[in-house]
Design brief:
Distance between the termini: 29 Å
Strand content: 15-25%
Strand order of the largest sheet: 1-2
Helix content: 10-25%
Number of helices: 2
Largest sheet: 2 strands, antiparallel
């Protein structure tokens, strides 16, 4: 719920478990997840644990009719990311 105080809007942070279907239905939900994964020299993902850990939250939100906007960054000074340059295996949601 947003509160306006002196021209500043403050929001109360909620976790996925705090949100009900009534809270989520038809809403847009921005999710910032740490999806950084280790890559081998061929830029293949070697451990997708963090991605798999985010799946229950994403499923919960989508099953309760929310539109999910997922945000992450991949930063590694050793590689240059070009369009289609990273290879990954489908995790499955």
């Amino acid at each position: 719920m947003a509160k306006k105080s002196g021209g500043v809007i403050s929001m109360v942070k909620k976790s996925g478990g705090d949100l009900t279907t009534a809270d989520l239905k038809g809403k847009k939900v921005f999710v910032r997840a740490n999806l950084n994964v280790p890559l081998d020299n061929s830029q293949n993902i070697t451990d997708n644990t963090r991605v798999r850990a985010a799946i229950p939250t994403i499923k919960y939100l989508t099953q309760n009719d929310a539109k999910v906007f997922l945000s992450n960054h991949l930063l590694d000074t050793k590689i240059s990311v070009k369009a289609g340059g990273l290879k990954s295996k489908k995790v499955g949601i």
